[in-house]
Write a structure and sequence with these properties.
Order of helices and strands of chain A: HHEHEHEHEHHEEH
Helix content of chain A: 25-40%
CATH architecture of the largest domain in chain C: 2-Layer Sandwich
Largest interface: B-C, 39 and 35 residues
Largest sheet of chain A: 4 strands, parallel
Shape of chain A: globular
Largest sheet of chain C: 5 strands, mixed
Strand content of chain A: 5-15%
Structural class of chain C: alpha/beta
Oligomer: heterotrimer
Distance between the termini of chain C: 53 Å
Number of helices of chain A: 8
Order of helices and strands of chain C: EEHEEEEEEHEH
Strand order of the largest sheet of chain A: 1-2-3-4
Radius of gyration of chain C: 24 Å
Distance between the termini of chain A: 63 Å
Strand order of the largest sheet of chain C: 1-2-7-6-3
Shape of chain C: extended
Helix content of chain C: 10-25%
Number of strands of chain A: 6
Chain lengths: ~220, ~375, ~190
C-alpha cells in the first residue's frame, strides 16, 4: 500500500509523511483501507447454472487465471463467499433458490449477472419457465453481456466490480447500518411466481409514448 | 427384466432403551459443489447407506421444443448449441442430419470430412473435461481439471478460428457447413492431434493405476447388461456394461464407413465406474486415430451443397441420430409443408441415462452416490432442454 | 446404414393393429399396446429390445384440401376435416440384430387422453412418459410413478399443447432502436 498521493484527502506535507514513515506509521482513511482489502480479495461462489458456468470455470483455469485478481478460491457454500456470479438462465423453478442463497450470504456481498440470460432472459425469453432477468428479485452490481461472454470479459467485469468497491462509503454500508440484506423469496403458484417481481428492487419501465390512464380519462 | 422400481435394501428401525433410529432425508442440490449443474437428488439415508434416491430436475427447463415450433428450421440451429453446451458441434450435426432427411440434399466431400473432424475434436473435449470433473468429484480438487482444461483450450482455439466462437459454434448448415476453415487451420489441427497422445500418456500414468481411484471406483455403481439395454442407455455407459453398440458403426452416417477404428467395450457384465472411466480414456485414443485418417485424406472442394433458399419440406417425418460423446443424440422432426416444424423433439441421452441412477446407487454409501453421478456424465442443458 | 425393420410379420396377429403408410408407422389400439410391445420385444423376427425415443404429438382439428378426380375425369378440391387426436410415438431398435427403426404409435383423443404405459416392457420409457404426462397431459395407465418432471409441482396446465396460452405478462421494453431509428431516419450515420 503506497503512502503517496493515492490516499485521497490526506493533507500531509511530504516532510511529515516521510518522518512518520521512518517511525513506522502509515496515515490513510479507513474507507480507503476497507475498500482496498475488500476489493482485493473477492471470493466468488460456485454458482453455475448453465453454459456460462463453463466459461466461468475456464476463467478460473491456468490460461485466464482469475486468482491473480484476488479470487483465489471459489467457495461452494454461500456462508463463506462474497460474490455471486449468476451464470446461466434463471428459470422460474430455480428463482426461489437463487434468492435464498443470496439471503444466506453475509455482508459485504455483490452480484454479477453474467450472460444474456441472467440479465434479461436471453435467447430463451419467450418461455413459460424462464425468468426475464435475475435483477427482478436481487440487486445486481455489474451486468456482463455475452452468450457466453469470453473469460477475458469475466475478468473485466471483476475489474469493474473492484472499481465500484473502491467508491463505496463505509458510513452507508448496509453491514453496519441495517444488517444483512434479505429479499423476499418468491412462491410457486399455478401459473407464475408470486410476486412476479420484487417492487423494492425492480420496476417495469414505463412507456413514454403512452399517456397514463388517469390523465386520459380526466 | 427388472421391475421399474428396484427394491431398497432391508433396513430395520431399532428401538432400544428409549433411543430409536430413523432415516435421514437429505436434499443434495440444486446448488451443490459436486452436481454437474442444477440437479437435485433427494436421498434417504440409513447411517451412510443410501436407502432411496429420487432425482429432481427441471431447474433449467427452457422450453427449447416449444420455441422451435415458432421459428424456422434454420433459426433453431443456434439453440441446438445450447442443449449440450460442451459439445455444440455434435448437436448441430444431429439436427442437420434430421433436416437433410426431410429434404434430399447432397453434402459435398470436403464438408463431410470437416464434419467428422469437428465431431471427433468435440469428443476429445468432452471426454477430457469429463475425466477432469470426475477426478474432481473424487476429491483431487482442481489439479486434473486444470490439466484437462489446458488441452481443452487448444481445441477451443481451433474452434474459434474455424467458426468464430469458442463454445456455441453454430457452424453446421443444412447441406454442409457455414464457411471453410481458414489458411493453415489443418496444419494447426495436425499439430494438436500429434501432441495429444503424449498428454494422454501423462494422464494415464498418473491416474489409471492410482490406488485411490481404483479403490473408490471399482465395484461401485454396477450396471448389468440386461438392465442397460432395457433402460435405453447408450454411449460409453452402455459399452462399459458389455454391449458392442456404437452408432457410428451401426448406422454409418456421414462417411464413417471409410475410417478404420475400433470400438472399446468390456466383455464382462460388471459395468462399474472404473469401467466407464477407462472406456472414455480408450475412446479418446480411437478418436485420435480417426482424426489422423481424416486429416490425411481430406480433399478440396465445395463446402455446402445445393439447399433450397427457403427451407419448406413436404409433410414428412424424420428421425436422425448420431453417436454423441454422451450417448445417442436424436432429433425427431415432423414437417407439415410450412417453413416452421410442426413437432421438434430432442432425444436427450443424459436424461435417459439417468433412469438407472436409483438402481445403481441403492445400498451404496452417500459418497459413492456423488461418484456414480459423475460417471454417468450428465449435462443439465440436455436433461431439461 | 441401419436396416429398416419390415413390419409384415406382425400384421394380422393382433386385431386393430394397422400400418399407416403415410407416416410409416404401426398404429396400435390402446387396449393392446402392452401385449403388442411385449410380442415385438420377444419375437425372433424382430427382437426389438431398445426403445430409443418416446414423444407426444398434438393434432388439433384441421381442414385438409385434397384434389380428387371423380368418375367424369374432372379434378376438384375436396375439403376433408381431420379430427383432433394425440399421438404417442415410440422409436424401436434392436441391439442384438442391429436393425431399426420401427415406429409404433398409440392414438388417443385430446379431451381425455389415456394410453397404456410401455414402461413394464422397456424401462427407458419411464422418464420419457413422465415428460409426456407433464407437458401434454396424457394419462399413462400402469406407469409406476406418474408425476410432473420438468415443471414445478403446483403448475397448472400442459405447456406443449397447441392450444396452451401463456399467462399475459406483457411489459414494455425500451429498445435503442427508437432513438437510433430516429437519428438514422434524419440522415445521420450511426457508428
Amino acid at each position: 500500500m503506497t503512502t503517496s498521493n493515492t490516499s485521497p484527502d490526506i493533507d500531509l506535507d511530504n516532510t511529515t509523511r516521510t518522518e512518520l514513515e521512518r517511525a513506522g506509521v502509515i496515515v490513510s482513511k479507513v474507507d480507503y483501507l476497507y475498500n482496498w482489502a475488500r476489493g482485493g480479495s473477492v471470493w466468488p461462489l460456485t454458482f453455475g447454472l448453465a453454459c456460462c458456468a463453463i466459461e466461468m470455470i475456464a476463467s478460473a483455469t491456468s490460461r485466464f487465471d482469475i486468482s491473480r485478481f484476488g479470487s483465489e478460491v471459489f467457495r461452494p457454500t454461500p456462508r463463506q463467499a462474497d460474490l455471486m456470479i449468476v451464470s446461466g438462465t434463471v428459470t422460474k423453478k430455480m428463482a426461489p433458490q437463487v434468492v435464498r442463497i443470496f439471503n444466506q450470504m453475509p455482508e459485504p456481498k455483490w452480484v454479477i449477472a453474467m450472460g444474456a440470460c441472467a440479465i434479461s432472459g436471453g435467447p430463451f425469453k419467450q418461455g413459460y419457465n424462464v425468468l426475464k432477468g435475475i435483477d427482478r428479485y436481487i440487486p445486481v452490481d455489474v451486468y456482463l453481456p455475452g452468450c457466453p461472454p469470453r473469460p477475458e470479459a469475466v475478468l473485466q467485469s471483476l475489474n469493474y466490480l473492484q472499481e465500484k468497491i473502491r467508491t463505496q462509503d463505509i458510513k452507508s454500508d448496509p453491514a453496519f447500518t441495517k444488517g444483512r440484506r434479505q429479499y423476499t423469496v418468491p412462491e410457486f403458484t399455478g401459473k407464475d411466481l408470486e410476486p412476479p417481481y420484487n417492487p423494492d428492487v425492480w420496476q417495469p419501465p414505463t412507456n413514454p409514448n403512452v399517456k397514463p390512464l388517469e390523465e386520459a380519462t380526466a | 427384466m427388472s421391475s421399474p422400481t428396484a427394491t431398497a435394501p432391508n433396513y430395520e428401525l431399532i428401538q432400544q432403551d428409549g433411543l430409536e433410529t430413523s432415516l435421514l432425508e437429505v436434499s443434495m442440490g440444486p446448488h451443490h459443489p459436486s452436481t454437474h449443474g442444477v440437479f437435485r437428488m433427494d436421498v434417504k439415508l440409513d447411517g451412510e447407506t443410501v436407502v432411496d434416491l429420487q432425482p429432481v430436475f427441471g431447474y433449467l427447463h427452457r422450453n427449447h421444443e416449444k420455441l422451435a415450433e415458432n421459428m424456422s428450421y434454420l433459426a433453431s440451429m443456434p439453440f441446438t448449441d445450447r442443449l449440450d453446451y460442451f459439445n455444440s458441434m455434435t448437436n448441430n450435426w444431429a439436427y442437420a442430419l434430421a433436416a437433410e432427411k426431410l429434404v434430399e440434399i447432397e453434402v459435398p466431400e470436403r464438408a463431410e470430412y470437416l464434419r467428422v473432424i469437428m465431431a471427433e475434436l468435440t469428443r476429445l473435449v468432452n471426454h477430457i473435461s469429463l475425466v477432469g470433473f470426475f477426478i474432481n468429484d473424487l476429491g483431487a480438487l482442481g489439479t486434473p481439471l486444470l490439466y484437462a482444461f489446458r488441452e481443452r483450450e487448444k481445441i477451443m482455439d481451433l474452434f474459434e478460428q474455424a467458426s468464430g466462437a469458442r463454445m456455441m459454434c453454430n457452424y453446421f448448415r443444412f447441406g454442409g457447413l457455414r464457411n471453410d476453415v481458414p489458411e493453415g487451420w489443418l496444419d494447426r489441427t495436425r499439430e494438436v492431434v500429434d501432441r495429444f497422445p503424449d498428454f494422454l500418456d501423462e494422464y494415464e500414468k498418473l491416474l489409471c493405476e492410482n490406488e485411490i481411484i481404483l479403490s473408490r471406483t471399482q465395484g461401485v455403481g454396477c450396471l448389468s447388461r440386461d438392465l442397460a439395454i432395457s433402460a435405453g442407455i447408450t454411449g460409453p455407459m452402455l459399452r462399459a456394461s458389455g454391449v458392442n453398440y456404437d452408432i457410428r458403426k451401426v448406422d454409418q452416417y456421414g462417411i464413417y464407413n471409410r475410417f478404420k477404428f475400433r470400438v472399446p467395450y468390456t466383455d464382462d457384465d460388471v459395468g462399474d465406474c472404473y469401467d466407464r472411466f477407462m472406456i472414455r480414456m480408450l475412446e479418446m485414443r480411437e478418436s485420435i486415430e480417426i482424426l489422423k485418417q481424416a486429416l490425411r485424406d481430406i480433399p478440396g472442394g465445395d463446402i455446402i451443397g445445393k439447399a433450397p433458399k427457403i427451407f419448406k419440406p413436404k409433410p414428412a417425418e424424420a428421425y436422425a441420430r448420431v453417436e454423441g460423446p454422451k450417448g445417442e443424440l436424436g432429433f425427431y422432426l415432423i414437417a407439415d409443408g410450412t417453413p416452421k416444424p410442426y413437432r421438434y423433439r430432442v432425444r436427450p441421452p443424459s436424461l435417459i441415462n439417468l433412469t438407472v441412477l436409483r438402481d445403481m446407487c441403492l445400498s451404496q454409501k452417500i459418497a459413492d452416490a456423488v461418484v456414480i453421478l459423475g460417471s454417468i456424465d450428465i449435462v443439465l442443458g440436455e436433461v431439461d432442454r | 446404414m441401419s436396416h429398416t425393420v419390415g413390419h409384415e410379420p406382425i400384421l394380422g396377429k393382433f386385431p386393430g393393429l394397422e400400418w399407416d403408410e403415410e407416416a410409416g408407422a404401426l398404429v396400435a389400439p390402446a387396449a393392446q399396446a402392452a401385449k403388442i410391445a411385449t410380442w415385438l420385444r420377444d419375437n425372433d423376427a424382430f427382437l426389438l429390445d431398445y426403445c430409443s425415443n418416446v414423444t407426444g404429438v398434438d393434432y388439433l382439428e384441421r381442414e385438409i384440401k385434397e384434389k380428387v378426380t371423380n368418375e367424369a375425369g374432372k379434378t376438384e378440391t375436396v375439403i376433408r376435416i381431420e379430427p383432433s387426436r394425440m399421438d404417442i410415438v415410440y422409436h424401436l431398435y434392436s441391439m442384438q440384430k442391429q436393425t431399426g427403426p420401427l415406429v409404433l404409435k398409440q392414438r388417443t383423443n385430446r379431451e381425455q387422453p389415456e394410453v397404456e404405459s410401455l414402461t413394464p416392457v422397456w424401462r427407458s420409457c419411464e422418464l420419457q412418459e413422465r415428460e409426456v404426462y407433464d407437458l401434454f397431459g396424457v394419462n399413462f395407465m400402469g406407469h409406476p410413478d406418474q408425476r410432473r418432471i420438468l415443471m414445478w409441482d403446483e403448475f397448472e396446465g400442459h405447456p406443449m399443447r397447441k392450444d396452451y396460452t401463456e399467462p399475459f405478462d406483457y411489459e414494455w421494453e425500451p429498445t435503442p432502436h427508437d432513438e437510433v431509428l430516429e437519428r438514422h431516419q434524419r440522415g445521420k450515420v450511426i457508428v
